[in-house]
Amino acid sequence: MCGFAGFVGPELPGPRDQCETLLNRMGQAILHRGPDGGGVWFDGELRLGLSHRRLSIIDLSELGAQPMVSESGRYVISFNGEIYNFRNLKTELECAGARFRGHSDTEVMLAAFEAWGVEQALARFNGMFAFALADRSQRKLYLARDRMGEKPLYYGWQGCTLLFGSELKALARHPSWKGEINRGALPLLLRHNLIPAPHSIYSGIHKLLPASFISLDLDQLVPGVLPEPSRYWRLEDQFDDGRDWTLDGASSHLETLLEEVVGDQMVSDVPLGAFLSGGVDSSTIVALMQKQASQPVRTFSIGFNEEGFNEAVHAAAVARHLGTDHTELYVTEQNARDLVPRLPQIYDEPFADSSQLPTYLVSEMTRKHVTVALSGDGGDELFCGYTRYPSMLRGWQRRGSLGSRLKGLSGRLPSGVTAQAIRALVPSQKGRSVEAIRFRLARARAIASARSLSEFYRQSVSFWPDPAMALVEPGEGSYGLTGTLPGQVPDNDLKTLMWRDLNWYLPDDILTKVDRAAMACSLETRIPMLDHRVVSFAMGLPASLNMNGKVGKQVLRSVLYRHVPRELIDRPKQGFAVPVSAWLRGALREWAEELLEPSRLREQGYWKADMVRQVWHEHLSGREDYSFELWGILMFQAWLANTGSADLISSNGPA
């Protein structure tokens, strides 16, 4: 696990030594991703430079250092991630005549490019990765990302320079960096508390989509022009399995497959452990790790003292049953207060999944003991685990009656209606302010007006029903929840929801959260559920096999029940939630009040100050819980306040 950055363009910032110094500075900006070493490579003829920071996991010697040049000298790579099947690929390549100096996966990748070409090699890699690859013979630059989007890759033109890298803070070290805020990203931030690919918070800077690569002809570069990404693997093609699975047969197959994947991902030249929440996903991974380990697996969990948020007790019970070496940390309001100001530096752009707090804290604790941690992420998306799926489908079926009721109610609520009149017309809204009632109506109208399940789902998972309510300049771009549903996706509502989540929520929320939090602590995370063989198997299962009434993940549960008693697992799904609602009224109130100060909001010119303040006051009163709606705005405000002093904005960018 590492980090990389680089630049290319018709204009260089100076002579070779100056370019190499700049590349070192770009690498230093992401030192946390690779504290064990660094290097640069520059080709003046190609006007291309690569920087790399190394977190040594496989082949700790200098033979694993990057940027790495292939044996023939044709290819040069800066690579972030792990290729889990590199040993098998190495054996095949050696039989074909390839020679190797060390035993790193990076060297195997270069030999694969030499033997099979870039696109064919990509299709054969089993792992998590993002990389920049220079083809000196064909004078091309390739940027590529793994199938599910575990590893990040930003790229884009800033003036006459194309910048690329693992994190935005590395790009911001280049003198061409402009750092202009992309206002079109803000509606998406309000909707989902994140900025989904291909968008970023900065104008002209994109996130490469998962399972994609771009190829740039270095002799044909035109500033501001980028090729369309190509796909080397398609999630939608994994749906057509054709097998008539039984629950027992599917569970046995999955157990065998996961056991192999977990075994592959336990290979490391440094200490290794696992996150354990006590839920189905992480417990399954830990159980299969412990089955193959010769000593107790190191496991780590995090808890809260607030009632209703603590899963640490469940994790501890599972750890005792499996016999792991377990460590836990309980989070306090003080922990949150200390961490929140650091979030803009960790995430580079506004990111507002509040579980980012415990994710960072458990990563920080874990890194004190191990360098690699396996995670159970991906199980909900692959095996229908989200409790919102059944309720979403019931809501979609009832949408007609909901629309009729709303239409009737809307006709009885003139624009100047008072709160007293609303409460008289709608007794269930007694105690709510008129602003809160209108907010709820806006959400319900947006949901009821949806013409497809995908749009119904998008509106249902939006925190702000209409971003224009709070934005000075609204306007949304397309992303994973707005694109056309591919024809390969079966005509099945559950499969539709799964495909949507796998295309936006998993890479843009879950994987972003885990990568930035863990790498900020120099901790490598590995996610066995996202091995493409597991993904293909899960997509081929009948949706009905995973759903038993309102309870999903039946196939995965059946695997876990072979290792852990049901009574330790079967309980209402809780998720990795944190008590942000209470914290905003307590430990974080002063911090939030400063960021939401009315004159500050008006001067900045992004938010409608009156609306934001109304929502804030409603939350403080305790009448409503607007913590999700506010957290996205607060993360933007905190990010904006830090961009002038966090080395994220260069001197020619906005303060």
Structure explained in plain terms:
The protein is an alpha+beta fold. The chain is 42% helix and 14% strand. It is built from 27 helices and 17 strands. Strands 2-3-1-9-8-10 form a 6-stranded antiparallel β-sheet. Strand 6 (127-135) and strand 7 (140-145) form a beta hairpin. Helix 7 packs across helix 8 and helix 7 (247-265) packs across helix 22 (554-560). The longest helix is centred in the last third of the chain and has 28 residues, at 493-520. The chain starts with a strand and ends in a 13-residue tail after the last helix. 48% of the residues are buried.
Q: Please state the CA-atom Rg, rounded to the nearest Å.
A: 25 Å
**Structural category:** alpha+beta
**How many β-strands, per DSSP?**
17
Q: How confident is the prediction overall: mean pLDDT?
A: 90
Distance between the termini: 33 Å
Strand proportion, as a percent range, falls in 5-15%
Number of helices: 27
User: Rough shape?
Assistant: globular
Low-confidence stretches: 644-655
Tell me briefly what this model is.
This protein is α+β, with helices and mostly antiparallel strands and 655 residues long. It contains 27 helices and 17 strands.
Topology, please?
Layout: E1 2-8, H1 16-28, E2 37-43, E3 48-54, E4 68-69, E5 75-83, H2 86-95, H3 105-116, H4 118-124, E6 127-135, E7 140-145, E8 154-158, E9 161-165, H5 168-171, H6 186-192, E10 205-207, E11 212-217, E12 230-231, H7 247-265, E13 272-275, H8 280-292, E14 298-304, H9 312-322, E15 325-331, H10 333-339, H11 343-347, H12 356-367, E16 372-374, H13 379-382, H14 388-397, H15 399-411, H16 419-425, H17 434-448, H18 453-460, H19 493-520, E17 524-526, H20 532-540, H21 543-546, H22 554-560, H23 580-585, H24 589-595, H25 598-604, H26 609-621, H27 627-642
Parallel strand pairs: 13-14, 13-16, 14-15, 16-17
Antiparallel strand pairs: 1-3, 1-9, 2-3, 4-5, 5-6, 6-7, 7-11, 8-9, 8-10, 11-12
Helix pairs in contact: 2-3, 3-4, 7-8, 7-22, 8-22, 12-19, 15-17, 17-18
